[in-house]
Design goal:
Layout: E1 8-10, E2 23-28, H1 32-47, E3 51-52, E4 60-65, H2 70-84, H3 86-89, E5 94-99, H4 100-112, E6 118-120, H5 128-132, E7 136-138, E8 140-141, E9 163-167, E10 169-170, H6 181-185, E11 189-190, H7 193-205, E12 210-214, H8 229-236, E13 244-247, H9 257-265, E14 269-274, H10 282-287, H11 294-307, E15 312-319, H12 326-339, E16 343-348, H13 366-389, E17 395-404, E18 407-411, E19 423-425, E20 451-459, E21 464-469
Parallel strand pairs: 2-3, 2-4, 4-5, 5-6, 6-8, 9-12, 12-13, 13-14, 14-15, 15-16, 19-21
Antiparallel strand pairs: 1-7, 10-11, 17-18, 17-20, 18-19, 20-21
Helix pairs in contact: 7-8, 12-13
The structure holds iron/sulfur cluster (SF4).
């Protein structure tokens, strides 16, 4: 049930013209988990009669925010302020703010942003269309955090037609000391496996060929409902039409031997693992409450590299965690250099109220965090470039994702959508060899979602360059 922290407000304009469909536009900030929420919000609003439009034309604008770290909060606030201009210079009659920032700061936002008509947390998102269609709406909607959905939940896909994200669980039951997510999304709640399989079947029927499985803590999937990730994957690989499945946001825990074997042997599960590690020094890992050690992390990387051929390993680190010494940071740098991750991202530690680490003494000055962050990225740039160069001369399947300057852009298995680079294809659409795509499509130009074979001819730090081969 919804509950409110403020008294109801009368809505007199949102549904004035029931006869002419209202238009809605959404801006989704933050991660792919938030994007799925945005797609569910759009689905709920579409079901309630809204048409999707540009921001300029929209009667209703929704900003789905991220409130994870300082930079994300700043981006969310700036976006809200920017979009509120459409209430003065556009068609917009209602501006609604949803997501993690609301879950965290609803009352403050209500005070500071009077131009926003309603604030909605991370819970009960599937009801947003129904509730906003009512004559009276409240200023704040907050319920149990986090929204789970099922195959029948209306959802409007906003990614390219051949690829989609599927959220297997919501929330997180870990207690990492720097992280506010469990407070914003609740403890981990897994979706039943048949709900996920049903959704993937529906997506395959719509023409989706790549499924990116997402969660806050992928490897813990199912622990709360008596199953596990391996069981889920064994069911998912049976779905016809799906060609690639990718595991994102894995915790360095829970990679059983049989799960690793399954990833290695099953063709549809890509040899790509995203596993945020955050740090490698034992003292810092302990302060982070990561529940693991440097030795265990090194073991799991060894095991994954040994068992899974040509593995692409993506990870993330935090630079400048409270009390991190230069020596401990240097240990992290050496680790990044030694482990040769295909991809590694970094965050500057963000001191967050409501977290254990936010209260820790010896917070690191901003300029030191910045300097460590830059050094970490510099080391990884060198590694990424060398790793990408090893692909020159190899051939991969890749989905066509668009064109740039008359040339196609493709994405191969080692390139996850949004977060990784792409493969630029040389040769204009007209000059591609006719036998470079499936027989049924010969004499046609390639289109987004076509699967082609790409030979890699060059590489830089982020992207690859190649040509289509038959
Ligand atoms: S596992 Fe990830 S989402 Fe969960 S508490 Fe740790 S950092 Fe946050």
């Amino acid at each position: 049930m919804m509950d409110s922290t403020s008294s109801p407000q009368v809505d007199s304009t949102l549904r004035q013209a029931q006869s002419s469909p209202q238009k809605v536009s959404i801006v989704s900030l933050g991660c792919s988990k938030n994007l799925v929420d945005s797609e569910l919000i759009l689905g709920s609003l579409k079901n309630a009669g809204y048409e999707i439009s540009s921001e300029k034309e929209a009667d209703l604008i929704v900003v789905n925010t991220c409130g994870f770290i300082a930079d994300a909060k700043k981006e969310s606030i700036n976006t809200i302020i920017e979009l509120s201009q459409y209430k003065h210079h556009g068609n917009c009659k209602k501006l609604i703010v949803t997501g993690c920032l609301v879950e965290r700061y609803a009352d403050e936002l209500k005070r500071e942003l009077p131009e926003v008509d309603a604030f909605w947390g991370t819970g009960d998102l599937l009801k947003i269309g129904e509730i906003l269609g009512m004559k009276k709406i409240k200023k704040i909607y907050k319920s149990t955090p986090g929204t789970l959905y099922d195959p029948d939940s209306p959802r409007v896909l906003t990614t390219l037609p051949h690829t989609a994200y599927v959220k297997v669980s919501e929330g997180c039951s870990r207690t990492c000391s720097f992280c506010i997510i469990p407070k914003l999304r609740g403890l981990m709640k897994s979706r039943p496996a048949d709900s996920i399989v049903g959704e993937v079947r529906n997506l395959a029927n719509l023409g989706v060929k790549e499924i990116n499985l997402i969660a806050q803590d992928m490897t813990s999937y199912g622990r709360d409902i008596g199953t596990n990730l391996e069981n889920l994957l064994r069911e998912l690989v049976k779905v016809d039409g799906i060609k690639w499945m990718r595991l994102l946001y894995c915790y360095p825990w829970g990679f059983t031997d049989s799960l690793v074997r399954l990833i290695a042997e099953e063709e549809k599960i890509l040899n790509y693992i995203d596993m945020p590690l955050q740090h490698i020094n034992d003292r810092i890992l302990k302060l982070m409450d990561r529940g693991t050690t440097s030795a265990r992390i090194r073991n799991i990387i060894d095991k994954l590299r040994k068992e899974i051929p040509n593995l692409t390993l993506r990870t993330t680190f935090i630079a400048g965690f409270p009390s991190e010494t230069e020596e401990e940071f240097k240990e992290l740098l050496d680790f990044v250099e030694d482990m040769r991750f295909e991809r590694a991202g970094a965050f500057k530690y963000s001191q967050e109220e409501g977290t254990k680490a936010g209260e820790m003494p010896h917070q690191i000055p901003d300029e030191v965090k910045e300097e460590r962050y830059e050094r970490l990225l510099e080391v990884q740039s060198e590694v990424s470039l060398n790793k990408n160069r090893t692909l020159i001369g190899t051939i991969h399947e890749g989905f066509i994702e668009g064109t740039e300057n008359g040339n196609y852009i493709a994405r191969i298995p080692s390139q996850a959508p949004e977060v990784d680079g792409v493969t630029y294809i040389s040769g204009s659409p007209k000059t591609l060899p006719p036998d470079s795509y499936p027989r049924s499509q010969r004499n046609k130009r390639l289109k987004v979602g076509d699967l082609v074979k790409v030979s890699i001819t060059d590489a830089d730090i982020y992207d690859l360059f190649g040509k289509v081969v038959s």
